[in-house]
UniProtKB/TrEMBL annotation:
Protein name: Phospholipid-transporting ATPase
GO MF annotation list: ATP binding; ATP hydrolysis activity; flippase activity; magnesium ion binding; phospholipid transporter activity
Catalytic activity line of the entry: ATP + H2O + phospholipidSide 1 = ADP + phosphate + phospholipidSide 2
Species assigned in the record: Fundulus heteroclitus (Killifish)
CDD domains in alphabetical order: P-type_ATPase_APLT_Dnf-like
Length: 1210
């Protein structure tokens, strides 16, 4: 067992239990045979392509079936057809599929080569040399520079930044663009960029084996006789990007396929659609039916040979020893060959062409093109298009998928007045849009040009030196843990661990209160052009329990103040009684902000007495060095000083959704598609986004929060939720069928009494996914309209998808943008990657990709539905025309002595599927649509039949077979009866085999063509050309093949000389064709007429509306701006983890001291001095009412790694 005691890793023989490596010692590290840094995502190479690809293709039942038929056709004793009728289509199918697979794999090879051939500096032989990524090995020390990708999983050794910090962007891993901070050990940080010291570094690392846990690392570094613990905050993962750091050095721990990024990619599985799986079942059934019918016909031949065969031996002598039994045996195999057209190989050729064509439609769709990032939609696979029309569950990431991860300071409330809305001269409020004139911040040379605000009254209040407004922005400029960088005068760059906090500091910057720089004991800001430095006395940092942060500062005038911001419910409990009226007004504003889905914070302050603070500071110091109950003592001190606060106002930040997300979710919900959000974000963040994007709604009966910390708690919460949604359900039968000895394979859909939502935390989800509770969780979740899973790991995302796939008979789709979504994307039936600025790892593993979440509705409701509809129509019609074609042989067998004589001419048999009926059905399958895209969006319910498999199923297949059986009887009996005892106009005989064959095949072609016309909903010029052209081609080829010239060239191949000319000039022949065609389609027309009149489907109703409105196309749907009223509020303009407070006050500066620049501000109004937000808030009477709406538990990760060791006092 590993000394780390990691039970989660496999212990199979030969599996790596722990990793050992030594820096700068390639020989030692090679002995463990660790993976190199080369990656390989391709499947084939030059030598393995042909055998592997053919092996994969012949695993498809149909290909193997046709190979067997080809072998049978080579045997002359049993073959009635030439071998080329099978070998040509088979080779064509294999070649097209192989070419497509080769193209895909060549693209994968190119992608691998691009990555493997990147260059990085490696320390080899005591000097830095440029090497390819693929040549990097475990134990190497490499140098990274700013904006470079991290080459492999590295242990950070040193960096150019103070405290050996580095800033990394993890967009490639998790889709988040805000920077993360990593910090090296002090002992390795002392190595700096001294190549000699780094070359002498011989530290040994023992750590966990390769795994896919992005959020955890366990290991130790042994160096200089000392052991140092290693955790995730000292590790740089492959796929991250180095930002705002000139250089850093790292030791390679995991390389190539063993890196956490590649471990998260999971194993690529071959995805097949539900129609593919159904087709395999149907092909087996058809093959069984074929064997059964051939057996019946062979038995018929045996009986006929016994009873009537001797009558024909006079002019048809038998081979020697050719008995009746052997004749029946040969007849069996002959009919196997003749009747093989029930499943022709052209079916699979056509399917591939249809899928390819529908894939091109996605690639070419300009309405799914994102011009800002120059990103078109891309169908990265051609085999899953029709599955897009059957999606029931969508699993979505949040950050970067639903949201842009861009925080916008949207509105605020200051001293009872709301700012951020735009009003006209009549007092009417207007929606803010890009067409309106934004606030001009030209008075502020340090303003961020990217910041946009539309309410001019707020900047006027700032210029008029409103005391409360100044105090509000002064608090935002001082109360934070943001770090500033100013390399050129006026060019400020803020580094915030969360984009929320960065947005607030940027807002203060633009309104004239510019955070400029900080030291461990001071904060420098520019207030309306005046440089001021505040003494930073204490930071009362944010954590998941406090839900607030405070700073204690002394102004240049010596005034001592505590500034606090946090969740409004937390702040309200600590306000002075004099703020009651202001609380009521601010609460109304907070409700309005939350109703619009904005993230809210309350701001408050308090002036401190010097003597009280001196005593408090002493007690704080004693508590901070205490070895027992340190945290609880500090919390008590924080509670003591953070009371009797005076309210300043509130902020409202928009976690900017991607364009069209609420509308897309609304449309998908109308299509009965259930959306589950699986995110690594904290609960409160995800829940608020759920409301802002219409996933959760105030109109819901309830939103259940499952956050238990034990299996019993989670089970009870799930049970309570189910009892609320279905009070009449029996608990025992509903929740615990496995305990009653019942095995559950599929959970049927249930309907709740109302609309509900479910929010579950990651730690609760871990219990819910256990085998004893997974069914309870799944039933509860499926009763809800929306499900949000928070704080989930990449593995849990895949487990949730697998759970739904296992127990729900439904098609799933996963959509994400980061490496943490790859396992989920690969687990789902359909994987969609969001491409753009957040990284490409998810795209590389996806089946479809585009730039914006909103394009998902077009992918599913238009392309997916059309693809499914076309494929189902194609299969129904294809089976109909081929069953009809083949069954005629069966009826003819009873009239030809079961001799395996074909009804049709051999040329017609060969060309029927390749020429005469191929293009019309392809035209329908590529161009047909019941309604256009506008109507598809107006009626999302059109999508529901696909989820229920109504267009093609075993039932639909059986109907098709019955229809074919009827049509084949009509097509055989009517021409047979019409030609019996019939003569031509000139009195000559017409009833010969060739004339019968010609009449039957002509009737067949007309009948199936008319049937195609009935199936087609959307006629185009191409469709019309294909249909009429195919009929014209039939007659042209028929007259040519039955001509004198062809007979003279090859007499044996063209025995039907003159048949077409002699038969098709007779009126009774054409009358027979018309009669047969009418009788074939009459039952279909009657059935459809009655069905539309008595039981119309949603398609029938919409198509009727389309016909009514054809003259005036429907206007685009008008969408009013969604404004909700809600009592929900959330305050979390902080990081998702503990703040930077300890690091800021650690006694050592975080970044280089800012260059001293002049403020550059013009003087506006009088100069403000001190921090004195008195104003009108002092005159309000107390209320004392606690405000306690639901506030979710917020989990955070420790940032203790930011604490640094200060130099011991001398």
């Amino acid at each position: 067992m590993s000394f780390f005691g990691l039970e989660c890793f496999p212990k199979t023989e030969g599996a790596e239990l722990e990793r050992k490596l030594r820096a700068n010692d390639r020989e030692y590290n090679r002995s463990f045979k660790y993976a190199t840094n080369a990656i390989k995502t391709s499947k084939y190479n030059f030598f393995t392509f042909l055998p592997l690809n053919l092996f994969e293709q012949f695993q498809r039942i149909a290909n193997a079936y046709f190979l067997v038929l080809l072998v049978l056709q080579i045997i002359p004793e049993i073959s009635s057809l030439s071998w080329f009728t099978t070998v040509v289509p088979l080779v064509l199918v294999l070649t097209v599929t192989a070419a497509k697979d080769a193209t895909d794999d060549i693209n994968r090879h190119r992608s691998d080569n691009r990555v493997n051939n990147r260059k990085v500096q490696v320390l080899i032989d005591r000097k830095l040399s440029s090497e390819k990524w693929m040549d990097i090995q475990v134990g190497d020390i490499i140098k990274l520079e700013n904006n470079q990708f991290v080459t492999a999983d590295l242990l950070l050794l040193s960096s150019s930044e103070p405290l050996n910090l580095v800033y990394i962007e993890t967009a490639e891993l998790d889709g988040e663009t805000n920077l993360k901070v990593k910090q090296a050990l002090p002992v390795t940080g002392d190595l700096g960029d001294d190549v000699e010291k780094l070359a002498d570094f011989n530290g040994e690392v023992r750590c966990e084996p390769p795994n896919n846990r992005l959020d955890r690392f366990i290991g130790t570094l042994t160096y200089g006789g000392q052991k140092y613990p290693l955790d995730n905050e000292k590790i740089l993962l492959r796929g991250c990007t180095l930002r705002n750091t000139e250089w850093c050095y790292g030791l390679v721990l995991f390389a190539g396929q063993e890196s956490k990024l590649m471990q998260n990619c999971g194993k690529s599985t071959f995805k097949r659609t539900s129609i593919d799986r159904l087709m395999n079942v149907l092909v087996l059934c058809i093959f069984g039916f074929l064997v059964f019918m051939c057996t019946i016909l062979a038995i018929g031949n045996y009986i006929w040979e016994i009873k009537n065969g001797s009558n024909f031996t006079v002019f048809l002598p038998r081979e020697k020893d050719n008995k009746e039994g052997f004749s029946a045996f040969l007849t069996f195999w002959s009919y196997i060959i003749i009747l093989n057209t029930v499943v022709p190989i052209s079916l699979y050729v056509s399917v591939e062409i249809i899928r390819l064509g529908n894939s091109f439609y996605i690639d070419w769709d300009r309405k799914m093109y994102h011009s800002r990032s120059d990103t078109p939609a891309e169908a990265r696979t051609t085999t899953l298009n029709e599955e897009l029309g059957q999606i029931k569950y969508v699993f979505s990431d949040k950050t970067g998928t639903l949201t842009q991860n861009i925080m916008i300071f949207n509105k605020c409330s200051i001293n009872g007045k709301s700012y951020g809305d735009v009003y006209d001269y009549t007092g009417q409020r207007h929606d803010v849009s890009e067409h309106r004139e934004p606030v001009d911040f030209s008075f502020n040379p340090l303003a961020d040009g990217r910041f946009i605000f539309y309410d001019h009254s707020l900047v006027e209040a700032v210029k008029l030196e409103n005391l409360e407004v100044h105090a509000f922005f002064r608090l935002l400029a001082l109360c934070h843990t943001v770090m500033a960088e100013e390399k050129k005068e006026g060019e400020l760059f803020y580094q915030a661990q969360s984009p929320d906090e960065g947005a607030l500091v940027t807002a203060a910057r633009n309104f004239g209160f510019v955070f400029r720089s900080r030291t461990p004991d001071s904060i420098s800001i520019v207030e309306m052009g005046n440089e001021r430095s505040y003494e930073l006395l204490a930071i009362l940092d944010f954590n998941n329990v406090r839900k607030r942060m405070s700073v204690i500062v002394r102004s240049p005038e010596g005034k001592l103040s505590l500034l606090c911001k946090g969740a409004d419910t937390i702040i309200y409990e600590r306000l002075h009684q004099s703020c009651s009226k202001l609380m009521d007004v601010t609460t109304e504003h907070l409700n309005e902000f939350a109703g619009e889905g904005l993230r809210t914070l309350a701001l408050a302050y308090k002036d401190l007495d010097e003597e009280y603070f001196r005593q408090w500071k002493q007690r704080h110091h004693e508590a901070s060095i205490s070895l027992e109950d340190k945290e609880s003592q500090l919390d008590e001190l924080y509670e003591e000083i953070e009371k009797d606060l005076l309210l300043l106002g509130a902020t409202a930040i928009e976690d900017k959704l991607q364009d069209g997300v609420p509308q897309t979710i609304e449309q998908l919900a109308k299509a009965d598609i259930k959306i589950w959000v699986l995110t690594g974000d904290k609960q409160e963040t995800a829940e608020n986004i759920g409301y802002s994007c219409n996933l959760l709604q105030e109109e819901m009966n309830d939103v259940f929060i499952v956050s238990g910390h034990s299996p019993e708690e989670v089970r009870q919460e799930l049970r309570n939720a189910q009892n609320s949604m279905k009070p009449d359900a029996t608990v025992n039968s509903l929740l615990f069928p496995e305990e009653m000895g019942k095995s559950v394979n599929v959970i049927k859909d249930e309907v709740a009494d109302g609309e509900y939502g479910l929010v579950i935390n990651g730690h609760s989800l871990a219990y819910a996914l256990e085998s004893s509770m997974e069914l309870d969780f799944l039933r509860t979740a499926c009763l809800c309209k929306a499900v949000i899973c928070c704080r989930v790991t990449p593995l849990q995302k895949a487990q949730v998808v697998e759970l739904v796939k296992k127990y729900k008979k439904a098609v799933t789709l996963a959509i994400g943008d980061g490496a943490n979504d790859v396992s989920m994307i690969k687990a789902a039936h359909i994987g969609v990657g969001i491409s753009g600025q957040e990284g490409m790892q998810a795209v590389l593993s996806s089946d479809y990709s585009f730039a914006q979440f909103r394009f998902l509705q077009r992918l599913l409701l238009v392309h997916g539905r059309w693809s499914y509809l076309r494929m189902c129509k194609f299969l129904r019609y294809f089976f109909y025309k081929n069953f009809t074609f083949t069954f005629v042989h069966i009826w003819f067998a009873f009239f030809c002595g079961f001799s395996a004589q074909t009804v049709y001419d051999e040329g017609f048999i060969t060309l029927y599927n390749l020429m005469y009926t191929a293009l019309p059905v392809l035209g329908m399958s590529l161009f047909d649509q019941d309604v256009n895209d506008v109507w598809s969006f107006q009626h999302p319910q059109l999508y529901i039949p696909g989820q229920l498999n109504l267009y093609f199923s075993k039932k639909a297949f059986f109907k098709c077979a019955v229809h074919s059986c009827y049509s084949s009887l009509v097509l055989f009996l009517i021409p047979y009866g019409a030609l019996q005892d019939t003569v031509r106009d000139d009195g000559r005989d017409l009833a010969d085999y060739q004339s019968f064959a010609l009449l039957t095949q002509t009737c067949l072609l007309f009948a199936v063509t008319i049937q195609l016309g009935l199936e087609m909903s959307y006629w185009t010029a191409v469709n019309t050309f294909f249909v009429l052209g195919s009929l014209a081609m039939y007659f042209a080829v028929t007259f040519t093949m039955y001509s004198n010239g062809m007979f003279l060239v090859v007499p044996s191949a063209f025995p039907f000389i003159g048949t077409a000319r002699n038969s098709l000039n007779q009126p009774n022949v054409w009358l027979t064709i018309v009669l047969t065609s009418i009788l074939c389609v009459l039952p279909v027309v009657t059935y459809r007429f009655l069905l539309i009149q008595l039981c119309p489907t949603i398609n029938d109703k919409v198509m009727f509306k389309v016909r009514q409105a054809r003259a005036t196309p429907p206007p685009p749907p008008r969408r009013a701006r969604i404004r909700r009223t809600s009592s929900r509020r959330s305050g979390y303009a902080f990081s998702h983890a503990q703040g930077y407070g300890d690091l800021v006050t650690s006694g050592r500066f975080l970044r280089r001291p800012a260059v001293s620049w002049s403020s550059g501000f013009p003087q506006v109004g009088r100069t403000t001095t001190g921090f004195s937000p008195m104003g009108r808030s002092a005159g309000y009477s107390p209320t004392g009412r606690p405000q306690n709406p639901k506030v979710a538990d917020v989990e955070g990760t420790s940032l203790q790694m930011y604490r640094t060791m200060t130099d011991p006092p001398l």
